[in-house]
Amino acid sequence: MKTIAQLTFIPLSSHNPTEEVQELLEHLAQYDVHIEVGYLSTTVIGDTEQIFELIRETYDMLSLEKGKFRFHIELLSPELE
């Protein structure tokens, strides 16, 4: 089973939000998941444990390194392999 999560990161106190989103995409690339970058959000598909680890570690990283932000997470029904 593959878990699908749609992530939307919105920097609220940034002069260069595009750069911050790019940094987030580079962070996500270190995980063993399939990544689909969309216009307003990014979809990650992978093992359930890996997806929830990615979400937790990404939130922790954003909390430590970024100013104010919104981080929307939408979980879609899983795909059977």
Describe the structure.
- The chain is 37% helix and 38% strand.
- It is an alpha+beta fold and 81 residues long.
- The chain has a single domain (2-79), classed as Alpha-Beta Plaits, CATH 3.30.70.
- It has a four-stranded antiparallel β-sheet with strand order 2-3-1-4.
- The radius of gyration is 12 Å and the shape is elongated.
Concise overview:
The chain has 81 residues and is α+β, with helices and mostly antiparallel strands. The chain is built from two helices and four strands.
Strand order of the largest sheet: 2-3-1-4
Total helices: the number is: 2
Strand content bin: 35-45%
Number of strands: 4
According to CATH, what is the topology? Alpha-Beta Plaits
* Mean pLDDT level: 93
Could you describe the largest sheet, including whether it forms a barrel?
Answer: 4 strands, antiparallel
Distance between the termini: 5 Å
Order of helices and strands: EHEEHE
Class from secondary-structure proportions: alpha+beta
**Gross geometry:** elongated
**Considering DSSP H and I runs of 4 or more, what fraction of the residues is helical?**
25-40%
CATH class: Alpha Beta
Q: How many domains in all?
A: 1
